[in-house]
Design a protein that fits this description.
Number of strands: 0
Largest sheet: none
Number of domains: 1
Helix content: over 70%
Subcellular location: Membrane
Family: Belongs to the ROH1 family.
GO cellular component, one term: membrane
Order of helices and strands: HHHHHHHHHH
Shape: elongated
Pfam families: ROH1-like (PF05633)
Radius of gyration: 24 Å
Distance between the termini: 38 Å
InterPro entries: ROH1-like
Length: about 325
Amino acid sequence: MILPKGSYLSPKLLAILNNFEEALSERLRKLKPNGREDILSLTWMKFAMESLCQSHADIKTLITALELPVCDWDEKWIDVYLDNSVKLLDICIALSSELSRLNQGHLLLQCVLHHLDSNPSKQFVRARSSLDGWKQHISSRNPRIQNCFAILDSLTETLNLPKVKNSAKGKVLMQAMYGVKVETIFICSIFAAGFTGSAKKLRNLEVPETCLWAGAFTDLQGFVNGEIRIMFSSGRATVLKELEAVDTTVKKLYPMIQDGFGPGEAETFQNYISDLGKGADKLSQGLDLVAKEVDNFFQIVLSGRDALLCNFRVGGDVSDRAHQSGVKQVVR
């Protein structure tokens, strides 16, 4: 699709491309969860974002290995890169805002635990109010995450562009960027689906079999998308594992706070309080770790964009294109 029949690559260029694609293929194989319960756990999400960061970092290494100066880039490549980078930064901002929003619920859970710590029977009304606040907070919707789907649609529409002519190095660069873009769209769509509680926008991307990573990606995509669709069809409120664990404990604890309980249930009640504390801490810590990786991804995309713009400024040919490609959109 990107390297048409008859395209010639020197042994050196072919080795650079193959090394990149083999590394991407291995990364995609490692991303496949061991089982359904590992999908969209915060541990897996952190690992997925780390993988994405590494793939984008590998693009920088590949550009250096190609010895392809920015001044030799085709104008179409530059426009697509600048436009895509702004969209990725917007996605990062949306993901960060959702992770922060979810983590704000930790304060409400801490209030519940505080009210139940010393003399729970006198604090039931306040504990129940905090639990009501937590349930309302978690079930609310973040419009920024909803907007991610439109951005991902736009990225998908330009997945196979632009065409490359008369530049063997350019073809290698575009095929490598194609692979990273596929991984980026896939992972970001999984995150967006998990955060919105909807599998309707999950993408099934078709990739050419000529890519060395095609088999690993198709296997990963089929397994993860399929399992997430099953989870939602079974009526699960959320596919985020750590969030669901807290929600399950809240549903057990809430009736006992609202209606009271007998002497024989006191130990069970204390166990639920303990489970809530452990689950809340695990959820908060997991959200923090994923947020850190999303921020790392943001910085990698931003630094790559800045490096490109800086090289053009040296050549005196960036001002108009930078502004046309939405550089000002990054400033919030």
